[in-house]
Queue: 3 jobs
Job 1
Amino acid sequence: MATGLVNGTDLLLKVGSSTDNEVIVAYATSCSLEVSADEIDQTNKSSYGWKDIILGTRSWSVSADALYQNEAKAGERAFVDFWEHLGGTNERTKVFVELTITGAAGSDNNKYYHGSGFITSLSVTGGTEDQSTFSVTIAGSGILTEAAAS
């Protein structure tokens, strides 16, 4: 068995209204983290026909896909919780996120990532005789921090 490899089932996205109350996205089937940087073109006549860049502003986002349900169990976030932040009564409020590994505590090699951002996308899908699902995307606002799991 390879050391350090992580089963995708163990990767979790947690979301909350503060850094103290982040809880998992209920019935999640996938989650992802994307970090990117803008390219600033520095190509000039001395580049010998090759593109030359420097890095500009960095950005990050997290997303999750989950099974849709009317309400979540205690300690979980459901579609209705995300709706409150994007289109509901608490419109345009920042959320706090953490991408972590289940059972990461106690291992010196496990890291988690956390920051705050805004819900920028929320969708629900339901096919005939199929499980209803929802997707949420949170765009980071400010720095994404890496920390050791404790």
Note: The chain has one helix and nine strands.
Job 2
Amino acid sequence: MHPFRFAHAAGDDWREIAQRCLDQLDTVRPGANLGLLYVTDSLADDAGDLLDRLAEATGVRDWVGAVGIGICATGTEYYEEPAAAVMLGEFPPDGFRVFPALVDDLDGFDERNGDWIKAHSPMLALVHGDTANGRTESLIQQLAQRTTAGFLVGGLASSRGTTYTIANGLSQGGVSGVLFAEEVGLITRLSQGCSPIGPHRTISEAQRNILITLDNRPALEVLKEDIGPACLSG
């Protein structure tokens, strides 16, 4: 078992960022076979070129990841600047299964991955979703049912421009990621999370990550209404 190799960098363009990351990954082990790539939305339009460069230089064919308004790396946050974070892992050749974006349903997913799922009983999947698709919540729930434990980790892509998820290429409007076989040992840690409360709401006004109004009403007023008096008094 080998630890992940990782790198992160900011720069003026994707070529500079790619090279800075590769310089940090200059001791990549020959067995690395799965890459994770996260880029800020300032780099979204060049994410495909960056992905191709990293895949060519490292020899890693399988990649997953997403675009985000901001990204975190070890002791570093990148926001409102072109930046990328990369991780490379080594797994048994049949220990994982990358799946491209699911947009409408899981029919094609089941056809392509059904036999592998039966053989390897995946316990966990790393998943990235695009909230532009109104079916994202349903797709995630259906995907969880394809794992033995119903356990998914990952997050939602975000961008002030074009939003992409990554699964051996860029895609929009769907849910994509990688399934891990039961025999692959993984440890997860929660960085942040939330639970839904109340009905679905529409963000009608916001300043960056601060909600001003929901459904054209003051956001604080709506929050108090949704959480109820018991939570407010506690």
Note: Helices lie at 14-24, 47-58, 107-120, 136-144, 219-233.
Job 3
Amino acid sequence: MIRLFVALRPPPAIRAQLAATMDGVLGARWQDDEQLHITSRFIGEVERPVAEDIAAALGQIYADAPVVALHGVGRFERRGATTALWAGIAPHDALAALHRKVDQACIRAGLTPEHRAYLPHVTLARLARGAAGPDADRWIAAHAGLASAPFALPHLVLYESILTRDGARYEPVMRWALGTTV
């Protein structure tokens, strides 16, 4: 079984800007540079033949490269406890349209449709349940104004997520160029 997801990778300058925010939350497992991405669709574990079908379907996607910017920060919670800190991405329209195309490609490859609401973001830290406490609130307040100049996301990437004792390691499997916005 192979654990997969489809994502877009911010350019180096944006990843450096994100890395500069990664501090000040006790118990946070900050993402390293190789882990910074905007998920378009989480696929999960599939057999190799299904992975090949997914890759073939993704290769048929035609879309302009989304142009977006960093826009604020936030958190994901489970039962009132912060589980992740993230940087927001805006505008959502082009990313949502690409997400729908990726989802349709995955459906053509035999997967079930994605039912979760799509929120474009870059995960910056993962937290053990209840680890952050007030540190997460302070971090969100300190970085609420996070913003960047617009940047393009010129490639769609199929990643393998390899789970290790130290967290997930992401390996690019295939990459497809997206068109340029005129």
Note: Strands lie at 2-8, 28-30, 38-46, 67-78, 81-90, 121-127, 151-152, 155-164, 167-177.
